[in-house]
Amino acid sequence: MIKAFLNGKVHQSLYAEDSLTSIFFERMEYLEKERILIKFLEKAKSILYDDHPQILLNDYIEIKYNCNLNNYKKFKLFFWPKHKTEGEPDLILVLFNEIYDDGILILIEAKFNSGKLRFGEKDQLLSYYRSINNSLKDFYDETIKSFKGIIGPIIYLTAYNSDYDMEESEMLIGKKYSIFSLNWENVIPDLYELNNNSIAIDLINYLHYLNLNDFNGFRIDFQSLDFQKVNWFKEANNE
């Protein structure tokens, strides 16, 4: 499908968010052994507030739950799972080992060239936060509704700086570090490291074709970021 798209053989709907989400994450399943999805998630980061430090997702999970994304060897993706009252997020990801309930559930909302669809009391990310934290049993999928493991933060996956969208939603949620941002381009360095892997090459070409690549050749060096590992989240979340 990617090759057909790159050669102009399929409809322009592949520019749409749903097509991008499906094409991208389905290929993450084929790269499970290479751990590309985990490496990608590790680059998600919180909003930078004046009174609380910015932190990477894995550091937050390690501090709050005493576990690490790299502890999980398997994952399952649920595309557009329906909830009775809170809408239909793009993706729910469950990372686990032998059974689902020993894992962590992460909701991912993906955007291409748009922002949130709803604001105010019906804020899209607020609705999704409520769906996994207050009414998980109201998902129609049996595996999701019966999940008893860790509920992680929401990941807001975009092609642009999404701090404004996230800040507004976190204010409505009333809890800092409830939403982490991630950009599509963040996966490209890890895909390049796979050298001649055909799936990785197709994904790189696809993301470049959609201009979801490193802006002006600039690449973030996540290894050099120095995020504080302190118990700030307890104060931020009134815990």
Report on this model:
By secondary structure, this protein is α/β, with parallel strands linked by helices. It has one domain (15-186). The protein has ten helices and six strands; from the N terminus they run H-H-H-H-E-E-E-H-H-E-E-H-E-H-H-H. Strands 1, 2, 3, 4, 5 and 6 form a six-stranded mixed beta sheet that branches. A hairpin with a 7-residue loop joins strand 2 (91-96) and strand 3. The chain is globular. It starts with a helix and ends with a helix. The relative contact order is 0.17.
Short description:
By secondary structure, the chain is α/β, with parallel strands linked by helices. Helix content is 34%, strand content 13%.
Number of helices: 10
Q: Low-confidence parts lasting 5 or more residues at pLDDT below 50?
A: 215-237
Structural class, please?
alpha/beta
The H-and-E topology, N to C, reads as HHHHEEEHHEEHEHHH
Q: Strand fraction band?
A: 5-15%
Dominant shape:
globular
Counted up, domains total: 1
Instruction: Report mean pLDDT, rounded to a whole number.
Output: 82
Radius of gyration: 17 Å
Largest sheet: 6 strands, mixed
Distance between the termini: 47 Å
| Percent in helix | 25-40%
Please provide the count of β strands: 6
